[in-house]
Design brief:
The complex is a heterodimer of chains A (159) and B (710). Chain A is of the alpha+beta class and 159 residues long. Chain A contains 5 helices and 5 strands. In chain A, a hairpin with a 2-residue loop joins strand 1 (2-9) and strand 2 (12-19). In chain B, helix 3 (80-92) runs parallel beside helix 4 (120-147). Helix content of chain B is 29%, strand content 24%. The site of one FE2/S2 (inorganic) cluster (FES) has 12 residues of chain A, from loops.
């Protein structure tokens, strides 16, 4: 029952011969050695495992490896370009939008996905889009500010 | 475990691990005499030995000028890696960037009791600062000899010592430490900086941990990888107290690469992929004998009362009967608090490598040395053969002081002969959590015609006592704590219970501050005014007044239909007052629109860090106030994941404001917990103000509020 699946992770081509029903989260954290993507609920409720697939936020604990054929996966480790942090990462640091940091990779990826499809979200819209990413430390207010600040910075950067 | 303190590495062993440089040892206990001030969560292992008297932390200045502080405290998001570095750099006059903390490694760091109770800055901080000041003294002395300039003429700044009269005569800390091996033990407290001389303390500094955390580089226990490691999944009983009746692992064993391992009562499957191990554990056929339990969320309170001991009186004064006689109005209420789970986003995890008679274990724990001793016991090793390393911890809130996962990983690794990871699933996390205990508080109180309190008769059950002593000036009062620890008496709670952020104080503050409002409303007096009228504690009056000014509180007797609430408390030396505004919908659901929190926590060492703790406490507090309640029946914990157990999310977010009352003459007090403990009371009071309905049971779910209004 082993499937042969090729896709890309953070711009690098990968090829896995695995049971195609396996979930992306575990392939990332084991075979691919990318532990920035976190497990917290395993059932799609919390968003700790969020990655981008073709630019859209996806719960990697729910995503079957089989369904990734030919797709582009981006994880928290792949957000930097030319050694520069993504504006969302910068904004999280700037706004102190984290405490224990365990939800942070998922939060950052969800926000990056949001800003790709909606470069200028209202505060209301940010709350709504992030609602199913959970944080127990209560970093919520600062996460919302960080996402808004990143949006502004990215619009500025785009001219 | 024989002989004198065999588990404590000697000073010599520590020094051997360090290269040259200047090392200052210090003992928190001697300096601060703080033992009685330091609590630990109930359920944590009792101390097996006295705390080491000679030293329990040290700092080192290396030949490269880098300063390292070694401590058994851990970083779980509350910010010690930043604030301790800030304090140390300031006292040493070293650049902040040159200072790092090495935390929670039992081989590198001296013994520590555990990270909890808002104690890190409050008790550990002063000792660390003193060591910094001592080291600075040593450096000045060395510089004086080397430069041939008297100490009085020297000035230390940013890691460089300069001759005031001739600034070109200078030497850096690294150069002074070069080729030396100087050891000092702090015996008396050198003078530490006055508030007016702070250069880094009290200021905003860049956090030490953010870059690693936003890039996914920060390693938590489940992120550690070793060659040849296997992932374990463990067969779990269906209910607490259930025993294994029959076991059939044939189907699990048929999965390629699976090893079934049994050590004592632990039945585990091991595989090189965690998700395959999960499949295999699902394939085990097992039957358990479970005792049926008649307890559930409704019957629990009567059960708990029936098991409660007499307890003891913790505070009293005057004469209750006389107070009752003088009352024009009397009030009697029972306040209920449900079981609440910790639900850190990181589940308990550990990786153990037990080979060749030695164990190295990476574990998410608030108590590395406790974990080391438990692991040593379980393996039959001497404690010095066990090294526990605590990487970043993904939240704890009192829930990571037991170390079951670390012990399991160690036992399995020893048996399997390779490194083994145990990471709890969310389901296991709910099952093995030691919940905040369900608690009851019965309050009977009265007021006279002048709107002053006449008596206060307070009986606390199962909250553990913290925060039970009231601070209002009431002539006749008595406070009895029936269950003085968080675990409760045998036959009490149906599952383990323990410390939860601000243990006990949220239940006590809910009861006390609700009852105060009950009396204020009966007297027709504004609840803030009622508090001020009955307070002689000026620190408390000050936080309340500051909150009222900032909130724009205009006096009105409740219910004013505005949905305003107020509550105040003290915890870990900090005073807190919170005001809130709520909206109550027709279906009983409560939206908290605004929360303003004011703290007097003495000198604020790291204002951003302190605000983060306040904001986090407010967000977390919304949960136990409005939705969080562990459901259970028949001995089973029914909540297994976030679909049924709702924690606060983005849409719950009120407008949050945080303020400090300046109190720079007072040493820093605890800041991790005060903001969370007032949330139940302030929201209950705001609900009353909005609706005229008094909620006596937490959480105040929509159903409960609706039922109470009907
Ligand atoms: S771990 Fe995937 S959504 Fe929670
Ligand atoms: S920062 Fe700890 S869970 Fe969000």
């Amino acid at each position: 029952m082993s499937d042969s699946v090729s896709f890309s992770v953070n711009g690098v081509a990968v090829h896995l011969d695995v049971d195609g029903d396996r979930r992306l989260l575990w392939a990332l954290r084991t075979e691919l050695g990318l532990t920035g993507t976190k497990y917290s609920c395993g059932e799609g409720h919390c968003g700790a495992c969020t990655v981008l697939v073709d630019g859209k936020p996806v719960r990697s604990c729910q995503k079957r490896v089989r369904d990734l054929k030919g797709r582009e996966v981006t994880t928290i480790e792949g957000l930097e370009t030319d050694g520069r942090l993504h504006p969302v990462q910068e904004a999280f640091i700037e706004a102190d939008a984290l405490q224990c940091g365990y939800c942070t990779p998922g939060m950052v990826m969800e926000a990056v996905g949001l800003l790709r499809s909606e470069p200028n979200p209202s505060a209301e819209r940010i709350l709504h889009a992030m609602e199913h990413n959970l944080c127990r430390c209560g970093a919520h207010p600062r996460i919302v500010s960080a996402v808004a600040a990143a949006a502004a910075a990215m619009r500025g950067g785009a001219g | 475990m024989s002989g004198a303190s065999p588990t404590l590495p000697t000073r010599r062993q520590f020094l051997r691990r360090m290269a040259g440089g200047i090392v200052v040892y210090f003992s928190l206990w001697d300096l601060i005499g703080a033992q009685e001030g330091i609590e630990k969560p109930a359920g944590a292992r009792p101390e097996r030995r006295d705390l080491p008297r000679d030293f329990n932390a040290f700092i080192r200045i290396g030949e490269d000028g880098k300063v390292t502080g070694f401590t058994g405290k851990i970083e779980m998001g509350q910010g010690p890696s930043t604030v301790l570095a800030q304090m140390l750099a300031d006292e040493l006059d070293a650049p902040y960037d040159a200072v790092e903390l090495v935390m929670g490694d039992t081989d590198l760091c001296p013994y520590d009791q555990g990270t909890w109770g808002s104690n890190t800055v409050r008790f550990f901080g002063p000792a660390l600062r003193a060591a910094g000041a001592e080291a600075r003294g040593v450096l000045l002395q060395l510089a004086s000899e080397q430069l041939g300039v008297p100490v009085e003429r020297l000035q230390a700044k940013d890691g460089v010592i300069t001759d005031r009269d001739n600034p070109s005569v200078r030497v850096g800390y690294g150069a002074l430490a070069k080729g030396r091996r100087i050891e000092r033990t702090l015996k008396i407290i050198p003078s530490i900086k006055e508030f007016s001389r702070f250069s880094l303390m009290g200021k905003q500094v860049p956090r030490k941990d953010s870059l690693a955390k936003v890039t996914g580089q920060a390693k938590y226990s489940a992120d550690i990888r070793l060659p040849g490691m296997l992932y374990a999944r463990i067969l779990r009983p269906t209910a607490h107290g259930a025993t294994l009746k029959s076991l059939d692992t044939a189907q699990a064993e048929a999965i390629r690469g699976i090893r079934v391992v049994r050590v004592g009562d632990v039945v585990a499957v091991l595989h090189e992929l965690p998700d395959v191990a999960e499949q295999a554990v699902q394939a085990i056929r097992a039957e358990f004998d479970a005792k049926e339990s008649a307890l559930d969320g409704k019957t629990i309170y009567a059960h708990l009362l029936s098991k409660a001991p007499e307890g003891r009186i913790v505070a009293s004064g005057g004469d209750i009967a006389e107070g009752q006689a003088r009352s024009s109005r009397r009030f009697e209420n029972t306040y209920l608090n449900a079981y609440v789970a910790h639900v850190a986003m990181e589940t308990h995890a550990a990786l153990a490598d037990v080979r060749g008679g030695k164990a190295t274990v990476w574990a998410s724990t608030q108590n590395p040395f406790g974990a080391r001793d438990e692991i040593a016991d379980a393996l039959g090793f001497a404690p010095e053969k066990v090294r526990v390393i605590v990487p970043f911890v993904g939240g704890a809130f009192g829930g990571k002081a037991m170390n079951a996962q670390a012990v399991e990983a160690a036992r399995l690794s020893k048996e399997a002969g390779c490194p083994v990871q145990v990471m709890f699933s969310r389901q296991e996390e709910f099952f093995y959590d030691w919940f905040r205990p369900a608690a009851l508080v019965k309050v009977s109180s009265g007021i006279g015609p002048d709107g002053r309190m006449t008596f206060w008769d307070y009986n606390e059950y199962y909250a553990g006592g913290r925060g039970s002593e009231q601070f209002y000036s009431v002539p006749n009062h008595r406070t009895r704590v029936h269950v003085t620890d968080l675990r409760g008496p045998p036959g009490g709670h149906p599952f383990p219970t323990g410390a939860w952020r601000g243990p006990g104080n949220s239940a006590n503050t809910f009861a006390r501050e609700s009852q105060i409002d009950v009396m204020a409303a009966a007297a027709g007096v504004d609840p803030l005014e009622f508090r001020l009228r009955n307070l002689s504690d000026s620190r408390m009056a000050r936080v309340l007044r500051t909150a009222a000014d900032a909130f724009g509180w205009r006096p009105a007797a409740a219910p004013s239909r505005r949905g305003y609430g107020v509550a105040c408390a003290s915890d870990a030396g900090t005073y807190v007052a919170t005001m809130a505004e709520v909206d109550v919908a027709a279906d009983g659901s409560v939206a908290v629109k605004r929360v303003l929190c004011v703290q007097d926590m003495g000198v604020v060492m790291n204002p951003t860090g302190a605000r983060l703790q306040m904001e986090g406490g407010i967000m977390m507090g919304l949960g136990y106030a409005l939705s969080e309640e562990v459901s259970f029946s028949g001995g089973r914990v029914l909540d297994e994941n976030f679909d049924t157990y709702k924690i606060p999310g983005f849409s719950w977010m009120p407008k949050i404001e945080t303020l400090f009352v300046d109190n720079n003459q007072l040493a820093p007090q605890g800041g991790g917990e005060p903001a969370v403990i007032v949330m139940g009371a302030v929201i209950a009071n705001a609900i009353f103000d909005a609706t005229g309905v008094r909620m006596l049971e937490l959480p105040m779910t929509a159903d409960r509020v609706k039922a109470a209004r009907a």
